[in-house]
Write a structure and sequence with these properties.
eight-stranded mixed sheet, FeeM_cat, globular, 8 strands, alpha+beta, N-acyl amino acid synthase FeeM catalytic core domain-containing protein, Aminopeptidase
Length: 256
């Protein structure tokens, strides 16, 4: 199977939203350690990295745990007319705010960080596909038009190669990071089926997306989710093999 290493990693993985002060501190400390290791931010006495977007109403902060150990964190923001504020719209207001006023919506990804002391048994190359997977699920859940990434220029090739990202703008500043960032965008709708065919780990069940982004459902599952990509793929294949007459007889939602 393509991306077998990614699927193998997801077998060991859970995705959680922080619910306690300790959870938040662990994520802020992981960010700080990851960014200071590369001189991405200035040092501070608390040895934590946080900003005003972390607790905004349109923000989702996730910890990605491998074998129950925090390995990575990512932050997503849903930008729309009601909630236009996010790191990308702050860094590039001229490129985004007019689109938001016209009704476009975005999933804005920020604060992607991997533990610099990551267990060597964790596949770092496979781990980097997890934030794009979460952002793709958010885009599907919210029916967003684009996924946005503020990235260093040398990292754009990754998003262009795998996610058909286009460059919206270049040379901007982003919060407290010490380097310029470019704004890339992946168009959703035009590319989603193509990406699913090429990147099977992006598949997910509706239940997984609800547990991540619907508040009531997330509370019921204690804000802790296991990836469903492999199960979603298996169900897709099973449905593809069902004869048209059988498909009509199957009750809606029976596969779930």
């Amino acid at each position: 199977m393509p991306f077998e290493r990614v699927f193998h990693l997801m077998d060991r993985m859970t995705v959680r939203r922080p619910t306690t002060g300790e959870d938040w501190e662990d994520i802020f400390r992981l960010r700080y350690n990851a960014y200071r290791t590369r001189d991405y931010i200035e040092s501070n006495e608390n040895r934590l990295d946080s900003d005003h977007f972390d607790f905004a109403t349109n923000t989702f902060v996730f910890g990605i745990y491998v074998d129950e150990v925090l390995a990575m964190s990512i932050r997503l923001h849903h930008l729309n007319r009601e909630h236009p504020d996010g790191p990308s719209s702050e860094s590039y207001p001229d490129q985004l705010l007019s689109r938001i006023v016209l009704g476009q919506s975005f999933i804005d990804c920020s604060r992607f960080a991997i533990d610099p002391d990551l267990d060597p048994t964790v596949d770092r190359a496979a781990l980097r596909f997890m934030p794009p997977r979460l952002s793709a699920m958010a885009a599907l859940f919210y029916e967003a038009d684009y996924i946005l990434h503020l990235v260093r220029p040398r990292h754009k090739a990754f998003y262009q190669r795998y996610f058909h990202a286009e460059t919206f703008a270049t040379g901007g500043e982003c919060g407290t990071v010490t380097f310029p960032v470019d704004l890339t965008a992946t168009r959703i709708g035009a590319n989603d089926q193509t990406m699913l065919d090429r990147l099977p780990f992006l598949h997910s069940l509706e239940t997984e997306r609800a547990m991540l982004f619907d508040e009531e459902t997330a509370r019921r599952c204690c804000f802790c989710v296991r990836p469903t990509a492999l199960l979603a793929l298996s169900l897709d294949k099973a449905n593809a093999n069902v004869r048209p007459t059988d498909r009509r007889e199957r009750r809606p939602g029976a596969a779930a």
